[in-house]
Design goal:
elongated; Rossmann fold; oxidoreductase (chains A, B); NAD binding (chains A, B); N-(1-d-carboxylethyl)-l-norvaline Dehydrogenase, domain 2; homodimer; alpha/beta
């Protein structure tokens, strides 16, 4: 019987995911699937070395050799590489005259527009396309503790499901039919992560310019991050809840952000994010008054991108 | 014996703190201090009503009547009110010819420049000044579960210490001698909180513009906030650790932020914070190369405010 699962792209993340997949297939825990895992990498020596050191893995030298598989995972470095490899795969499938059902699973972080284009090309060739973004670092991939965010045709997601426990130990967040939503979601997640870095950087810098040790700022983050503050505000914003019964009024918040910006100016510490948050508070005040909770700065963000107000208070 | 502790400013926060202080004084848990708590409010009826309903509280009608106290807490709405009341207090003390040691404790969120000016005015009148910013909402004040951040003369902080457990149930973060650092710290904390709101708002908006339910974004926040991501990056930035062994390279991060901005453009969803983070990544890349962890965007923030590089990798 031909191998059923193939994996393309053996970078730091790919190696971890592929190793866990091979182990999973070998263990018999995926009903309907068996090993070995066929791996392909554009640098062939990488695939050969990986197969040599990883039980249950067979290396191949051409994309054509993964065509027989029922499920092909792809985890490549960028949109251009991902486009090229999918193109090679679909060409090889056509050249083989292959018509068996196949599912192509992109796990790389690609533009939603790229994913949309790839899904259309795959569908045209009779291949179902699932975007399955993953969250986690290479060390999390190596221990099978990623989060996987699949989106694509229901039947394809169902066929894929028995394989996900191999590497998605921290959760599977199913986003439904449209592969592009998974790609967008991954970008939102990475935006959130980069925002945490920028927020912490600006807080540490303002501290350093005002005689406050990093350790004090870190104590604040360690105390407040697990507190109800960030999720509490996020939940209430999602629900359109801007009552000051549980929040802090825009007029008080904009006073404080004004103070923060004054401190930034006096200590020559540019804080672009304080400027943006302040402007969003003023915008919200101009349109909705100053007495809503400062979570209502979401109303300015919504307004600026054309979403209607979601306020339950008005 | 004259009352030893006074409290000025009975807004939502003040009432909670004052009630817990009165209870604490009455319980005998503060060695060297006893009740009743003397309260003053610019609207006298508020103080009278509060004293009527709160055991261990005595209302007074003038600032002059708090002069005999050893410790005077003040929690007022803004810098102008705080300036006016401290001025009244110091004038009354001078008019009385009072020379007993006294400690004036500001708990309001004021500009560090205001705090500096107030501390100087107090010192000139023989009064020690402590800035003791507090974190927490009125409901946390009412249950004694605030964080208190005192800074001021060592002897004054020592004298204050037995009173803090009354209301600072979540922690006392002592910042040392300079009252202004406590005021700056409070601004950094409120900047961090407002940043969490803005980050969540932009993530929710980008989701809404790309077919992703709020609930999926909230699931992501609920999963990643308690994860090692935000604190891990913050700690490594503080330590100048930008190795990609545990992080994500600038070149990969700037590719992703480029994708995020493209998605923002394509879905007409302004994301000013993505723009800032992207520019900081490019700035870091220009000066330090693209292979450091993307936490190195802190180097751009540091550079922009005149702090030296803290990189241990270079």
């Amino acid at each position: 019987m031909a191998p059923q699962v193939a994996f393309i792209g053996l970078g730091g993340m790919g190696k971890g995911v592929a190793a866990k997949l091979a182990e999973w297939l070998g263990s018999g825990k995926a009903p309907g699937y068996s090993g070995p895992l066929v791996v392909y990498n554009r640098t062939t020596a990488t695939a050969q070395g990986f197969a040599h050191e990883t039980p249950g893995v067979t290396a191949v030298a051409t994309v054509a050799e993964v065509v027989p598989a029922k499920i092909v995972f792809s985890l490549l470095a960028n949109d251009a590489a991902a486009d090229a490899v999918l193109g090679d795969y679909l060409s090889a499938r056509a050249a083989d005259g292959a018509s068996h059902p196949a599912i192509y699973v992109n796990a790389a972080t690609l533009l939603p527009a790229t994913v949309k284009r790839q899904a259309a090309a795959a569908a045209k060739a009779g291949v179902e396309f699932v975007n399955m973004s993953v969250f986690g670092r290479p060390d999390a991939a190596a221990t099978g503790s990623l989060v996987a965010v699949p989106a694509g045709p229901a039947a394809a997601r169902q066929a894929l499901a028995p394989l996900l426990p191999a590497f998605a130990g921290r959760g599977v967040w199913d986003l439904g039919e449209d592969p592009a939503t998974s790609a967008s979601f991954k970008l939102i997640g990475n935006f959130w992560i980069s925002s945490q870095i920028e927020v912490a950087a600006e807080c540490l810098a303002l501290g350093a310019k005002n005689g406050i040790e990093d350790s004090a700022v870190l104590t604040m983050l360690e105390t407040f991050l697990p507190s109800p503050i960030p999720i509490g505000y996020a939940r209430r914003m999602g629900a359109g809840g801007y009552s000051t019964e549980t929040g802090f009024a825009i007029d008080l918040g904009s006073k404080d952000l004004g103070h923060i910006r004054a401190r930034a100016a006096d200590s020559a510490c540019p804080l672009p994010w304080a400027d943006v948050a302040y402007i969003h508070l003023l915008q919200t005040k101009a349109r909705h008054g100053g007495s809503l909770d400062w979570g209502a700065m979401f109303l300015a963000v919504r307004d600026n991108c054309g979403l209607p107000s979601n306020s339950k208070q008005e």
